[in-house]
């Protein structure tokens, strides 16, 4: 009986210490004030912010690659949601559902190829890269100071092998 009381008291003590600790952390967190970076907010606050990503101007090339991926992921998410809605809608016909399933599979396949190519290029030492895939053609934008002829050949062969696009249909753009 005595050991049960010790265990109960121990559990009570641990719970009390945890509550006091969490309350202390919350108190300290409430003292922290967050101030937004005024320089970053100027275009938004002044109304100069353009919501069209194609009109965005970047001072930093790396920011372009990051922003493009974010926008691409946002659009892809919307596409996938729309296709999933069609697939799960009982009012959509069998043929339309099958077509939506094929489009979804193609979209996922394209996303995987983009990810593989972009990460392989980074692994080869390039700062960053983006793959654009269209029917029968691919374009790769590579962030690099200089690309030689052997770089163009190596990249086009790799992209061709992964995407199934003819090497001659692979366009490489150097972004500095």
Structure characterization notes:
With 176 residues, the chain is mainly alpha-helical. The protein has a domain of 117 residues: Orthogonal Bundle (Helix Hairpins), CATH 1.10.287. The chain has 5 helices and 3 strands. The chain has a 3-stranded mixed sheet with strand order 1-2-3, with helices on both faces. It starts with a helix and ends with a strand. The model has no long low-confidence stretch (mean pLDDT 82).
Write out key terms for the chains shown.
Helix Hairpins; 64% helix; single chain; three-stranded mixed β-sheet; 176 residues; 3 strands; mainly alpha
CATH architecture of the domain at 60-176: Orthogonal Bundle
User: For this structure, what is the CATH class of the domain at 60-176?
Assistant: Mainly Alpha
Radius of gyration: 26 Å
Looking at the structure, the CATH topology of the domain at 60-176 is Helix Hairpins
Order the strands across the largest sheet as they lie in space. Answer: 1-2-3
Give the % helix.
Answer: 55-70%
Quote the beta fraction: 5-15%
Strand segment tally = 3
Count of DSSP helices? Answer: 5
- Low-pLDDT ranges: none
Note the gap between the termini: 75 Å
């Amino acid at each position: 009986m005595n050991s049960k009381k010790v265990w109960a008291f121990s559990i009570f003590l641990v719970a009390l210490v945890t509550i006091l600790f969490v309350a202390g952390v919350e108190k300290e967190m409430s003292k922290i004030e967050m101030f937004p970076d005024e320089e970053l907010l100027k275009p938004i606050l002044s109304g100069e912010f353009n919501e069209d990503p194609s009109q965005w101007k970047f001072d930093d090339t790396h920011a372009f690659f990051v922003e493009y991926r974010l926008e691409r992921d946002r659009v892809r998410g919307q596409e996938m949601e729309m296709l999933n809605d069609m697939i799960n809608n009982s009012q959509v016909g069998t043929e339309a559902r099958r077509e939506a399933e094929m489009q979804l599979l193609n979209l996922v396949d394209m996303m995987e190829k983009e990810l593989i190519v972009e990460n392989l290029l980074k692994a080869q030492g390039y700062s960053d890269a983006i793959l654009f895939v269209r029917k029968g053609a691919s374009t790769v934008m590579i962030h690099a100071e200089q690309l030689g002829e052997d770089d163009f050949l190596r990249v086009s062969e790799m992209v061709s092998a992964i995407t199934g696009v003819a090497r001659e249909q692979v366009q490489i753009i150097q972004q500095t």
